[in-house]
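Hey, does this match?
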Amino acid sequence: MEEAQKQVEIRKQEVLGGKGNEGEFEIVWCVFDTENLNNNPTFNQAVQVADANNYSLAISNPAFEFWYILHFESTTRPFNNGKEVKGYLKKFINNYKESMTVLPLLVGSMSAAISRAENVLQNHPDGGNRFPNPSTGVHILTAQLIDMSPSGSVHF
């Protein structure tokens, strides 16, 4: 973990131009697409480093595509891995590929997805787990970005 923390400090200095003025940031977000939390040996270390630096986390378990699914339905059905999540997403976006632009397909249901993500976390059967399967924290980041945008709430 020391090496990871050292890398965080190096990046801070690079971003701040060596000034050491950490007050230039209100918030730093780490977005994790775990793909399979149980088979990711560095995940816990990354979370510890983020927590130690007061970084906000937007973690999707078991895959980022779970956030996309929440634009269409709410579910706490566990998934075995990211591949299974992507296959399930094809129920709603039948030609889904990781490289495709999905925002136009999701933008109209952003508010619903945010509400569904909150409900999933509040009512998850595995609620004792910080990052239950399935879950996402992307809704918190998204809501903050919408709030920061002068016209965000009008569009979403």
